[in-house]
Amino acid sequence: MAKPKYTSHVGMVDILPDESPKWRALEEIIHEEAAKFNFEEIRTPIMEQTELIVRGIGQLTDIVSKEIFAFEKGDSHYVLRPELTAPVVRSYVEHHLDQRGGSQKLYYIGPMFRAEKPQKGRQRQFHQFGAEVIGSDDPVADVEIIALMMRVYERIGITNFELKLNSVGDPESREAYKEALRDYLRPNLDKMSDVSQERFEKNPMRILDSKEEQDQAFIEDAPVISDYLNEESQQHFTLVKEYLDDLGIDYTLDPHLVRGMDYYTRTAFELTSPDLGSQDALAGGGRYDLLVEEIGGQPTPAVGFAAGMERLMIACEELDISLADEKSVDVYFVTLGDAARKFALTHLPKVREAGLSATMDYKGRSMKAQMKDADRENARYAIIIGDNELAEGKYSLRNMKASEEDSLTFEKILSKLAGV
Ligand code: HAM
User: Fold this and answer.
1) Per the domain annotation, does 188 fall within a domain?
2) Candidates 107, 126, 310: which one to mutate for ligand 1, based on the most atoms within 8 Å of Cβ?
3) Which of 131, 151, 283, 321 would be a feasible disulfide site paired with 307, CB 3.0-4.6 Å?
4) For 225-268, how does the pLDDT look when each residue is reduced to its tens digit (9 = 90+)?
5) How far apart are the CA of 88 and the centre of ligand 1, in A?
6) Same domain, 314 and 334
7) Which amino acid residue places its CA nearest to atom 12 of ligand 1?
8) Are residues 259 and 343 both part of a single domain?
9) 287 CA: nearest ligand 1 atom
10) Which residues bind L-histidine (predicted)?
11) Cα distance between residue 335 and residue 348, in whole Å
12) pTM of model > 0.85
């Protein structure tokens, strides 16, 4: 009988040992930069109640209508989280995080799940890092969120991007705008896609996000929200732009930018890169002043962003940026005979206690094969041990790069290694 052949699910990829150092390096950068901005990490479960995600993101969005992985068990309806803003807000409300005082400045790193058609830069399990400021409607919060997002890319050396900016207004501005949009679209509605027709009454702004070919001509000349912002939304947007200017952060105004979730109010932004191909959004976010209340909390303004980590990696590859050093080990014990192997096994901990990484052969291979393995592991030093060395109490310490060897006691070897 043929052996079964298992693979990971389509669009869900393993991060293999050759790849994981760059993930760790990226995570380290995110933790460091978030700390500099005084954000605190939050970790929420991978699964949430379906109802939370539907309510939070919006029934008519692509994410909820087509892309969620959902299942039932008993009376519970589970969904693999497609994003983290709604879950973080759920956690904020559930645990009364407002009582900690001040604005909550939270960040996260982790896997998300969307049942999209996989392609370059688009997976079904992908990773985001992101941040949310909950409890402030000050444009300073919007700009700090954008600055933190940009800082991570800048630090890595990705600077070839465009920050697209819009204001999608507050409820009052949006009502006026939706009316204008309906008036504009109504005469041609029967020529538009079924999805757009469905969205027309309940949420015509979603139509601006349509990917359907037949809708594009109508979307192009649609009225823009910036002409319908009330004074308050306009003032807020003006300050966001002014503060971005003050920080020297370039942006392009994009009046059609509506983003893929229904929770956005006022500021909306997206960071795109020409190095990514068709899935060109590195990151995106905006303000969501009504979501906390929608999810059962007190009215609380908030703003945040999330960034795709796989897309950041693709941009790094395109730009020849390596996030992590080549793999290496400080010390490789090369042994001949059982007594030498035992010596190596019992002296590995001493090297590790000195703060160095150390390994030995696990396969009983010849000395020559072990030296080759030490090379493959990119070892900095080899400690070579045979019966003579054991009898003498002195071992060969080989500097692998310089091809130099010293015969030393183990104590001398340790102090020499500790000094390098
Ligand atoms: P989003 O625009 O849906 O926003 O996702 C943010 C980023 O995640 C995208 O710009 C992209 O880089 C990455 N991404 C999304 N889907 C995929 C996928 N299928 N494969 C690979 N990468 C993907 C949000 O998720 C909001 N929660 C952002 C936010 C936070 N708004 C306010 N606070």
Assistant:
1) no
2) 126
3) 283
4) 999 999 999 999 999 999 999 999 999 999 989 888 989 999 99
5) 15
6) no
7) 308
8) no
9) 32
10) 83-85, 114, 128, 132, 259, 263-264
11) 12
12) yes
